[in-house]
Structure formats: structure tokens, C-alpha cells
Amino acid sequence: METVSEQIITRSEILPIRTQIDLVHVRQRVRTWLSEERFTLIDQTKIVTAASELARNALEHGGGGQMEMSLLAVGARKGIRLKFSDQGPGIADITMALKDGYTTAGGMGLGLGGSKRLMSEFDIQSSPGAGTVVTVTRWK
Amino acid sequence: MERIPILRIGSLLLVTIQVDLYDDLALQLQDDLSTRIADLGATGVLIDISALEIVDSFIGRTLANIAAIARVLDAETVVVGMQPAVAITLVELGMSLPGIRTALNVDLGMEYLRQAATGGDGVGTDHYAE
Amino acid sequence: MIKLLKMMRDNQDRILTDWLDGLKASARRRDLIGDVEVKEHARKILTLISNPPPNTVLEDFSSEGWQTVRDQLMEISISRVAHGSSPSETAQFLLSLKPVMFKLIREQLTTAPDELFREIDVTNNFVDAMALHIAESYIQSRDKVIARQQEEMLELSTPVVMLWDGIVALPVIGTLDSSRAQMVMESLLHAIVQTNSRFAIIDITGVPTVDTLVAQHLLKTITAARLMGAECILSGIRPQIAQTIVHLGITLNDVVTRSKLSDAFRLALERSGRAVVQKAGQAPVVAPVAGVS
């Protein structure tokens, strides 16, 4: 009777990631959207934290870039998708980069692997010299 | 540059983080606290994070560094007021912050630091059970 | 076609009576849904079918004109789910309309066999479409009820109780799946903040099995509580579960455990600087047990 609902983007916005202050803006904008869309407090905290980690990655390792946030709807189901892209040196070994404790900048190396655990879906596209694009989604 | 204020109460230092913490501000706090502990010979540092909506790996690492530096300078650090959602997220992120003393609120945190200064058993929760 | 609808309008009372008689004859469980309600449902459906908006044909049940009928069927299905009727009983309610209609059509069209056949075919398909629709609606309504009940059960099943000033306990009963473990975790952490409790006892006496996932959830909860400044004590680990935990290679080294809830409570009291003592000159009060002197 019912057909499979298509995924549609109901809202979209692009934010720059050039400075540490941009990083704070990214966190605040994501938080505002999530509270407007009535995500639970726990979900809000997890998503904002993941956004903070990935934005910092783009800034520190990718030399800056941008985040595109989109609100998704599949039937009655809502979700948020965050796409971080930079034009940095890229990642040669993605499997390695996803491991906890892997770090190139002297951090604790929880950024990528940690964000993956905080979100429902995680995708990374990267190759040396071609920059990195990380796309994460979390459904309500 | 913007700075997070550090209050002194007797031999204790009290920090209440109420702004959105960006990385340099967190590092600045780490520097300021190290200097103040050494200058004042402080025995304890209390950091109230009840107003923080998120603690990501960078902030978590800074808190751990502050505690480690304070220990070297012979001062105890207690982090108080972490929100449940923040705690759940940190655990999911893979950060359990071993070595950081925690307490539910400022009162319990102060009580712990006072007892720690006089050598008594603390009321804070440490990360080594029994 | 229009003739058929007119036929229905002209004979509405008779159709209703015959339909209800047919329903009574079939093995309907009258304890579930009352005659009055069934009559009301049947009457509404008949009225709606006999008086559709212009240009609405019986051949196409999915058309816009039949929306009111579909809505009405949804409403009936909700009521049927609430009363506990089965899906087949619910579909049977509509299918019982068929013999009534066939009989009427045969009487009216005895002289025109071609027309008779066509109208019976149309009626047959239309009633089938309605029966399918109500079956679908029934399942949707029941799914909604199940989802709501699951949510309610989740909430009911995680009560956090305050044992003493600064000590809360969470008796976990039943299997902990991922979503329930999440719920348990959240309600315990919120209770810690609300009651300002430094100690939280998680009692798993009522948990039948502990697998790796459940153990991980418990460990996460305990770690999160520590980050907030509260200490968790795990109690009620039954021997089989202790064996499973060791067998799975899960380390609970950093977790304070006690075999019984009462031991955990005593430990929490001690750690918060309190003690349970027996008053001098008084025998410990024990509730009388039948058959024991």
C-alpha cells in the first residue's frame, strides 16, 4: 500500500571552518538546529560533540574547509547530516586513522573513531593530496 | 585576549567555566592555572563545568592535563558538575578521564579538597575502585 | 453503475438489517465488541458508500472520492484493535456484506444476466478492496499500540529508588537490550543529579543473562556516573552470570561489586560515613515467620 519514502533535504546551510572561532560557531549552529528540530538532549550533545571533533580535524589536519549541514526527512523520520570537507593533504591509510589512539597532531586520537561511535552513519572519502570529506548522519 | 577568571578561596583555586570553550581559551586556562598554583602554593583546584554543554576530546584532554600539572605542583584537582548527557557522550567518545577526581557539585568538591589538604579520606569519587 | 448505488440508497435499511443478521449468524465474539457499536459502524459505512461525491465509481476504490470511506475504515480498525478483535474478524465484518448485496442485485436484475454478472463482479471487487484496506489499517493501528506499549514498558521498567539521603538504587528486572540499557543509563544518571546522590547501586538480581553488550552498557553507565562524581556499586550478580562474565573475558576490575543489594547498601552507608549498629540491650528485630519458633 505504501511505497518506500524518498530521502529529502528540508533544510541546508554551509559554515566555514577557518579559525577556532568558526569551530565554536559550528557547535552553536548545530545545537540551534537540533533544539529547533527537537532532538533529545543526549542526541544533541552527541551530535554537537561529533561536529566539534570533525570540524577540529578539518581545521588542524586539513588546513580549514567547510561544513555543510542538512536536515533530512524520510517519511516521518528525521535526521541530520553533517559533511566536512577540506583541501588538506588527505589520509593515506583510512583504516588506521579510524583506530582509537591514532594521531598525527599529538592529540588523543579519538576524533574520527569517536565521532563514528556518536553518529548513526559515517563515511570518509580521502586520498593523499586530494583532501578529505567526512559525512556523518544521525537519525532521530 | 579573553580569559577565564580564577578565584582564590584560602589555599584553593576555583574556576567556573561559563563560556563556550574554544581551544586557545582552554590552553590559556591551563597556563594561568599552572602559574597561579605555583605562585600561591595552592593545595587544590576546583573546576566547575556544570554550564558546559559539551566536552569534546580537546577539552577533556585539557582537563586531564591540568590535573596532571597540578599534581606535579602538589595540588589536587576536582572537576565538578558534569551533566549526564556530557558524561554519556564522553564515555561513548572513548574518554573515561582516568586520574581526574570528580564530584557532583561545588559543595562536595570543596569538601573533598579541604579533606585532601588535611590528609583525610575524600568525598570525591576517584577512578580506582577499592 | 449509478443504478447500483441508487439500489443501495433505496434499500439501505434492508441491507443494514440483513448485514447485521449475517454478522450475528457468523461466530462473532459478542463479548469483545457490542452490537450497538457494530450496527453504528455498519450504518456509517453503508451511508458513505451509497452517497459518494459526484463522478466517484465503485470500480476504483483508491480514488479520491472514497477517502471518507477509507478514513471511516481506519477509525473502525482502531476501535477493533482496542476491543481485541482479530484481523480476520475485522475483515469478516466487511466480507459479510457480500451475500447481502449479491442477493439484492440478483432480485433486481433477474431479467438482465449480463448486467447481473457485471454488478456482482464490481460489488465483489469493491468489498474485497474495503476488506483489504481495513486489514491493513488494523495492522497499522496495532503496530501503533505496540510501539506505545513498548515505550510505556521501558519507562515503567526502570524505576530509580532512593534508599537513603545520597544513595540511590536501580533494580534492573528483565532482559537488557540496547535501547533499554540506554534508558536505564539515562534515568540513573538523571536520578543521581536530581537527588544529589554520591552513591548509586545497580542491582541486577532480576537480569536473566548478561552478554558482552549488556556488560558494556553497565560499564559505560558506571564510567559516566564516575565522571559526574558518583560511585556505582554493582550488586546481585548470580553465580551463573559471574561465570558468563568471566567466560566472555569481560573485566570488571574497576567496578565495585557485592553479591547482595543489602551488602551494597551497607558499603554505601559506610563510605558516606554512616554505620548500621545494634542498640545495646535490644534484640535485633526480626519479623515473625510462620512455622518457625
Structure in a nutshell:
The complex is a heterotrimer of chains A (140), B (130) and C (293). Chain A is 35% helix and 32% strand.
Write up this protein.
The complex is a heterotrimer of chains A (140), B (130) and C (293). Chain A is of the alpha+beta class and 140 residues long. Chain A has a single domain, classed as 2-Layer Sandwich (Heat Shock Protein 90), CATH 3.30.565.10. Chain A has four helices and five strands. In chain A, strands 1-2-3-5-4 form a five-stranded antiparallel sheet, covered by helices on one side. In chain A, α1 (20-36) runs antiparallel to α2 and α2 (41-60) packs antiparallel against α4 (111-118). Chain A is globular. The model of chain A has no long low-confidence stretch (mean pLDDT 86). Chain B has 130 residues and is of the alpha/beta class. Chain B is 43% helix and 17% strand. Chain B contains four helices and five strands; from the N terminus they run ββαβαβαβα. Chain B has a five-stranded mixed sheet with strand order 1-2-3-4-5, sandwiched between helices. The longest helix of chain B has 18 residues, at 23-40. Chain C has a five-stranded mixed sheet, with helices on both faces. In chain C, α5 (87-95) packs antiparallel against α7 and α8 packs parallel to α9 (212-228). Chain C is an alpha/beta fold and 293 residues long. The longest helix of chain C has 44 residues, at 113-156. Chain C starts with a helix and ends in a 22-residue tail after the last helix. Chain C is built from eleven helices and five strands; from the N terminus they run αααααααββαβαβαβα. In chain C, α9 (212-228) links the parallel β3 (199-206) and β4. Chain C has helices at residues 2-10, 12-25, 35-50, 67-83, 87-95, 97-108, 113-156, 178-195, 212-228, 239-247, 261-271; strands at residues 161-164, 167-173, 199-206, 231-235, 256-258. Chains in contact: A-B, B-C.
